[in-house]
Amino acid sequence: MSVTMRRKSSGQAFDLQRYLAQQTSAVDRALDRLLPPASAKPPTIHKAMRYSLFAGGKRLRPALCLAAAEACGGKIADAMPLACAVECIHTYSLIHDDLPAMDDDDLRRGKPTNHKVFGEGIAILAGDALLTEAFAIACRWEGVGNWQREIIVELTEASGSRQLIAGQVADLEGEGKDISAAQLRYIHERKTSALLRCSTRLGGMSANCNPRQFQALSDFGYNVGLAFQIIDDILDVTQTSEQLGKTAGKDTAAQKATYPKIVGMEKSRKIAAQLTERAFRALDVFKGSASALAALAEYLLKRDK
């Protein structure tokens, strides 16, 4: 069964563009409220933090968090701080990823990267500050249920040396080397999938989800995360820098292992579709209350930037 057939068979019409616009606006307002103002001393660091945080990102991770909360019958207001915490971690990772010592990129979201505007030192500190703010926001969370400790553990593990940072390390060490598909999957699981899975799990936690729902959100986030990175690998080859809002072809230039390089373009697309189908199957637990999550999964598979 193809992804398209599965979505149509649900009989549900979902306006994803409207949903994303509404959630992005709400997340931006919340981030503006939760983060120190640009005028707070020292202003340079707060301007640098906000420069990258409000550079026009799609807010996909917060959207997944909020949609997961809704699927479990939760409230957007309860999930919002956790959605913002995830976005702070994601933005920190992008700032550091773009540094000369890492991917050495000049363009992100169609704008000069943080270190190009503020210098390498301030960019490093802006990333550090956003990571710290993420945990401050999560620690102040006052939602329902008994998930407070688990929320902090979830954020810590997803962004730590065994997940997000582990993926970045393995990615750096794999440059210019012939690595296996299993090794590449290890990188993608940690560098990308871990934080996407964290997003859906946090949404469930904010809604005091039951164990079955939590497992379903974990499976959904894991598979969507892997599919997301495979599509990213494909777009790096097929799209221009103007289309992507970041430097195209940088993976090839850095001699990085990618799915198209290892298994080919056609098989890469097939694997991404299979992973997305597994994500859809995980949503069966919610019996029709996860339309937003399903629409987001399909969008991530079919995106062109």
Radius of gyration from CA coordinates: 18 Å
SS-derived structural category: mainly alpha
N to C succession of SSEs: HHHHHEEHHHHHHHHHHH
Q: What is the overall number of helices?
A: 16
Strands side by side in the biggest sheet: 1-2
How helix-rich are the residues, as a percent range?
over 70%
- Strand share of the residues? under 5%
What is the strand tally?
2
**pLDDT < 50 stretches:** 1-11
Largest sheet: 2 strands, antiparallel
- Alpha-carbon distance between the two ends: 25 Å
Shape: globular
Compute the average pLDDT: 92
Give a written overview of the molecule.
The chain is an all-alpha fold and 305 residues long. The protein has 16 helices and 2 strands. It has a two-stranded antiparallel sheet. Strand 1 and strand 2 (111-112) form a beta hairpin. Helix 2 crosses helix 5 (76-97) and helix 11 packs parallel to helix 16. It starts with a helix and ends with a helix. Mean pLDDT is 92; it is low at 1-11.
Key traits:
disordered N terminus; 16 helices; 305 residues; two-stranded antiparallel sheet; mainly alpha
